[in-house]
Design goal:
The structure holds three protein chains of three kinds.
Chain A lengths: L17 E7 L4 E6 L3 E6 L5 E6 L4 E6 L5 E6 L8 E6 L13 E4 L5 E7 L4 E6 L3 E6 L5 E6 L5 E6 L5 E6 L3 E6 L5 E6 L4 E6 L5 E6 L18 E5 L5 E5 L6 E6 L5 E6 L4 E5 L2 H5 L4
Antiparallel strand pairs in A: 1-2, 2-3, 3-4, 5-6, 6-7, 7-8, 9-10, 10-11, 11-12, 13-14, 14-15, 15-16, 17-18, 18-19, 19-20, 21-22, 22-23
Chain B lengths: L1 H80 L12 H50 L1
Chain C lengths: L12 H11 L3 E5 L6 H18 L2 E7 L13 E5 L2 H8 L2 H4 L2 E4 L2 E7 H9 L29 E7 L2 E8 L4 E9 L6 E3 L5 E5 L3 E6 L4 E7 L5 E4 L5 E8 L9 E8 L5 E8 H4 L17 E2 L7 E6 L2 E6 L4 E2 L5 E2 L3 E6 L5 E6 L7 E7 L4 E8 L2 E8 L5 E9 L6 E9 L7 E4 L8 E6 L5 E6 L6 E8 L5 E9 L6 E4 L5 E6 L6 E6 L4 E7 L5 E4 L5 E6 L8 E6 L4 E6 L3 E6 L9 H9 L1 H40 L1 H9 L1
Antiparallel strand pairs in C: 1-3, 1-5, 2-3, 4-5, 6-7, 6-42, 7-8, 9-10, 10-11, 11-12, 13-14, 14-15, 15-16, 17-18, 18-19, 19-20, 19-21, 22-23, 23-24, 24-25, 26-27, 27-28, 28-29, 30-31, 31-32, 32-33, 34-35, 35-36, 36-37, 38-39, 39-40, 40-41
The chains are: A mainly beta, B mainly alpha, C alpha+beta.
């Protein structure tokens, strides 16, 4: 298991939007999946590019297996290619890295937005457009299970610390907690806005949701109209108990600090905001 | 002859000494005058500065006083608007008054809320009583 | 008991018809699919999905392939729900499917409309003689009026769901009284006294009522677009317009009038749209403005009327014939409105030639002119009846001498006073734009919104002084408000000033009795404000015209937020109206006098209720907590395994 470091690194290749990132090693390497049709491995802290996996489609989600021996990556549908899932060997030493996947397979239409290794690296679970989550056998690429847990695209999926459930963020204006073994929806958080990202506190039974109006429509209304606050819900009671303002564009991503004492939001407005939760948050009993 | 020369020399020496001492005295006098003038100027400058500062101080005091007066007036106006009597010449403490006014405001707000709650309760109860009493009429109307 | 002439025909086969067609218009059936066991189900499902995607825009989760419960083998057909009805029509004409779609050598797939499929599937294999429907005691249509806690209902339509809820302001929640998916195909409409609710379907409308919302009647009007009840719910009007047969023809209007109880069609009105879109009934581009027919006020539904060219045609109930066999001739008539309380109509004829503009109040059926008023240089006129029929306010915009601007004045007819005196009044600045006018529903006051800037003023006036003498007097001006809507409480006394839509949902709850602001608040992006029929609660709504945050906030009359409920794709919210009270006035007075006695009892009840509500919430939370704990417990081994790995 990798502990996320307490520094915040912003990586850009200057060309196309990065879609997802993943820490590797002792936080000395970073893997990015990008719309420029590459997956890259970077050296930290020099920021030097170490390796590049090239695809003919935009790359989206990347995830290392437990133990970091394999890398799972997803690609979007592009011209003739359907959406794809690719598994690579992940070499300890970058000189030994191969650009050829161990196995690749295709998925039904719609973006594959996030991927996770589960069940002792034997299976992958993925989140998709149309609100679908799927389970795959890593060795055969066979689809094992498919469940629609949302009414619209799942934009983000984050794993609980104990890896028993995920939180999904969807354009159906809700976030949900889903059991990873049964894909049963355990909790639903209604926001009335597009949810782009959702994170679970490692400290309390709290979740934080970020999102807002569709980015393409933001300019048409007042900044306030987008509802660009990060919103705190009680994980079990599904009730909202707080909002944190700051962004003037939709929030695209939220993440808790591993300590649960602060959280970070990345917005369409181009800002990354690190929010330190004040004393009240830790002392107040919200319900 | 030698005597005369000696005397001359002495005289000249004396003369020279005298001149020197006179010059020294004059120079000393000049210096003293200069120093005196300097001192005088310094004094004048200091005086000028003091006066300016004094004026400034007085001005700021005046402003301060005016502000205070205005503040007092405002506070009085605020209190007056709430029908609170203030004794003539009584000095009002700003923070205290603001605190008072705030608590007053809160009290009013609470009072309004209480009134609203009472009003709401009355409206609700009246409506319920009317419905309760209307029920038999409805019943007969329905049977018809 | 009296069954109000409503047939108990719920066992009728046609019922199914109405139900299925109500929601599945955009549904197709793919037939002749292979019948596969459970293991192959997913695979076939993927094939079906692929085929379905060629047919059109498939709705999320829009493919359903039924499985035989016993054998777990699929039944050989699948339902496909497309995004739009038009796509179904297109799909049925699709060349690739016209001759059947060859899936493999044994399976040639065919398509049909779900509604047709259902119709055929419902045809019984053998003829079964109809059993006579057992007589059912009709449900009490007034039961909702006698709620023990004195609550009121509202209907809320969101997504495919329509629900009727009890508003429980005290406990800050809504309790569902009835809900149903695909209850209506377009909208729902309460009858004016709330006795029933009308739903719209392809074949016509249906009305529902009683504690469980059983269907009371159906009215055939294919593709009905709009409906309108008579004030006392005896009749219902429905409207459609039809495409012209040839390009030269204009749109064709069809309006049906039914007897609500008997379900009988009483009369049809048909004709080209320009015959109906006259004066104030004409919208932009010659469209028709609803309602075309306006109902006379009063305790009986006696008359209804519509505007014609130079005439008003009044029809008489129940035979629906033209009153006195002749329309009311009125040159240049542009608009008319009935008094809400009696058969009295006010009409406005525009100025033309030497004829001045004219406003006239006419008593029906006698056709007696009670009062008239002539005016010159009139540019526009609007008629505002007081909801109790005591006054008629006429807003007159007249051209100035230069004809470059207009001034506004109000002519107020005091209809209930002897000889119908006329009060004329203007704002201090009569050149100012008047944005809105609203009578206090009970009482003698009115509010005017005026001003040319972005923040208008609201002025309150009264028609009478303390001694009841007539005369317009200004009471108060509220300046510079970000307000584009004013909503009086149905009981009067209180008003909500709202800045809706682009004004971000600013709300000011104002007491006109005390002339003080009770509260200011915001319901961000609110699109509508609606008072409950008793004036105790206010609902503010963000409807689907806004992309986000759809939902309802319920406030006390004084602006305290009681609860909010989020509903995505919120299409409609409306309080259930109430009929006028049956209480005799002396009884009302008695209640008001003895209110203390009631209050004591109600206070106790309320306390009990709130305590119970608190306990319920706590219990619910505890249950949530327990459930979560047991879930985590059940997953402990799995988590440990992951951790060890």
């Amino acid at each position: 298991h990798v502990d996320e470091p307490e520094t915040l690194v912003l990586a850009t290749d200057g060309r196309q939007a990065g879609q997802s990132i993943q820490w590797a090693g002792e936080s000395d390497r970073l893997i990015t999946g990008s719309a420029d049709q590459t997956i890259r491995i970077w050296d930290l802290p020099t920021g030097k590019e170490l390796f590049q996996f090239r695809h003919r489609e935009p790359c989206r989600a990347v995830k290392l297996s437990a133990g970091e021996r394999f890398l799972a990556a997803t690609t979007d549908a592009f011209i003739e290619s359907p959406p794809g899932i690719h598994v690579y060997n992940f070499a300890e030493n970058v000189e030994d890295q191969s650009a050829t996947p161990v196995i690749s397979w295709t998925a039904p239409k719609g973006r594959i937005t996030r991927v996770f290794w589960t069940d002792c690296n034997r299976k992958l679970i993925t989140s998709h457009d149309y609100g679908i989550v799927r389970r795959w056998d890593v060795e055969t690429g066979q689809m094992l299970q498919e469940t629609q847990v949302h009414e619209d695209a799942i934009q983000d999926m984050q794993m609980s610390p104990d890896e028993t459930h995920v939180i999904t963020a969807s354009l159906d204006k809700t976030a949900r907690v889903v059991d990873i073994e049964t894909f049963q929806v355990l909790k639903t958080y209604k926001t009335g806005r597009f949810v782009q990202s959702a994170a679970m506190s490692p400290l309390f039974d709290h979740v934080v949701l970020g999102g807002g109006q569709d980015a393409s429509q933001v300019t048409t209304t007042a900044a306030q109209a987008g509802g660009f606050e990060a919103r705190f819900f009680h994980k079990i009671f599904q009730e909202e108990f707080g909002r944190v303002r700051g962004h003037f564009g939709p929030i695209n991503t939220v993440a808790f600090h591993p300590s649960g004492r602060s959280f970070t939001t990345g917005g369409e407005d181009g800002y990354v905001r690190v929010h330190h939760l004040d004393m009240d948050y830790f002392t107040t009993k919200f319900f | 002859e030698g005597e005369h020369l000696k005397a001359m020399a002495r005289k000249m020496a004396i003369e020279k000494k005298k001149e020197e001492s006179e010059r020294a005295a004059y120079e000393a006098e000049q210096l003293q005058a200069q120093m005196k003038a300097q001192a005088q100027r310094a004094h004048e400058l200091a005086e000028e500065k003091r006066r300016r500062e004094e004026a400034l101080r007085r001005e700021s005091e005046r402003i301060q006083r005016e502000m205070e007066e205005r503040e007092q007036e405002e506070l009085r106006a605020h209190l007056g608007a709430r029908n609170i009597k203030v004794k003539e010449g009584e000095k009002l403490e700003k923070t205290a008054v603001i605190k008072d006014l705030m608590s007053e405001r809160i009290k009013e707000q609470q009072e309004l809320e209480r009134r609203m709650a009472r009003h709401a309760r009355n409206m609700d109860h009246l409506e319920r009583a009317r419905r309760e009493e209307e029920a038999p009429f409805l019943e007969t109307a329905w049977k018809e | 008991g009296d069954d109000m002439g409503i047939k108990s025909d719920d066992d009728d086969v046609k019922e199914e018809d109405v139900q299925t067609q109500s929601g599945f218009g955009s549904c197709l059936v793919i037939q002749n699919l292979p019948k596969v066991p459970e293991e192959k189900y997913e695979k076939l499902m993927n094939v079906v999905r692929t085929i379905a995607s060629k047919l059109g825009d498939v709705r999320d989760n829009g493919v359903f392939m039924p499985v035989d419960e016993a054998t777990k083998i699929s039944k050989g057909f699948a339902f496909v729900e497309l995004a739009r009805k038009e796509e179904v029509d297109a799909a049925l004409l699709d060349e690739r499917f016209a001759q059947g779609y060859q899936l493999d050598k044994n399976h040639r797939l065919t398509l049909c409309r779900f509604d047709d499929f259902d119709k055929y599937a419902k045809v019984p294999d053998e003829y079964v003689p109809l059993e006579p429907a057992p007589y059912k005691q009709p449900e009490n249509l007034h039961s909702w009026l006698a709620d023990k806690q004195g609550r009121d209902q509202y209907v809320i339509r969101h997504g495919d769901n329509t629900g009727v809820c009890w508003n429980d302001g005290k406990r800050g929640r809504a309790d569902v009284a009835y809900q149903r998916e695909y209850w209506t195909e377009s909208f729902v409409q309460w009858s004016p006294q709330g006795t029933m609710i009308a739903t719209m379907h392809r074949q016509g409308m249906a009305v529902w009522g009683g504690p469980t919302f059983t269907r009371l009647n159906r009215f055939a009007h294919p593709n009905v677009r709009l409906v309108d009840f008579s004030p006392n719910e005896k009749y219902i009007l429905s409207y459609t317009s039809h495409e012209p047969a040839t390009a030269r023809d204009s749109f064709h209007v069809l309006i049906n009038i039914f007897d609500v109880r008997a379900g009988k069609l009483l009369r049809k009105f048909e004709g080209p749209v320009d015959e109906y879109a006259v004066g104030s009934s004409a919208g932009p581009a010659g469209a028709l403005k609803w309602p075309v027919f306006k109902w006379a006020g009063g305790r009986d539904d006696l008359y209804f009327a519509r505007l014609g060219r130079g005439k008003i045609s009044i029809f008489e109930c129940p035979h629906m014939g033209l009153l006195g066999k002749e329309s009311l001739k009125m040159d240049g008539v542009q608009d008319f409105e009935w008094s809400p309380s009696e058969p009295l109509l006010a009409a406005y004829s525009a100025e033309h030639g030497n004829q001045p503009a004219r406003i006239v109040v006419i008593k029906v059926p006698e056709r007696i002119e009670l009062r008239q008023k002539n005016m010159l240089n009139v540019s526009d006129v609007k008629l505002y009846w007081h909801p109790q029929g005591t006054y008629l306010a006429v807003k007159v915009e007249a051209w100035t001498k230069t004809k470059k601007s207009t001034t506004t004045s109000f002519q107020i007819f005091c209809v209930k006073d002897k000889d119908v005196p006329l009060e004329v009044f203007e704002l201090k600045n009569n050149k100012e734009r008047v944005l809105n006018f609203a009578w206090e529903p009970k009482g003698h006051r009115f509010a005017v919104v005026h001003g040319d800037g972005p923040r208008p003023s609201i002025s309150f006036f009264t028609m009478r002084d303390d001694k009841g003498r007539l005369g317009v007097r200004e009471l108060k001006v509220l300046e510079s408000r970000s307000c584009n809507a004013i909503c009086w409480s149905p009981q009067g006394r209180n008003i909500v000033l709202a800045g809706l839509k682009n004004l971000n949902g600013q709300l000011e709850f104002f007491s006109v009795d005390e002339m003080e602001t009770m509260a200011t608040a915001e319901h961000f992006m609110a699109t509508d404000v609606e008072w409950d029929p008793t004036g105790r609660y206010v609902a503010t709504v963000v409807s689907h015209v806004q992309q986000m945050e759809n939902g309802v906030n319920i406030w006390s009359f004084g602006g305290r937020l009681l609860y909010s409920s989020q509903r995505d794709k919120l299409y409609q919210f409306s309080w259930r109206p109430r009929p006028p009270s049956l209480l005799p006035p002396e009884k009302e007075a008695e209640i008001a006098k003895n209110l203390k006695q009631y209050t004591k009892r109600y206070d106790e009840e309320d306390e009990q209720l709130l305590m119970q509500a608190d306990a319920d919430v706590l219990q619910e939370r505890q249950r949530g907590l327990d459930d979560w704990k047991s879930y985590m417990e059940s997953r402990r081994n799995y988590a440990a395994l992951q951790l060890d790995f």
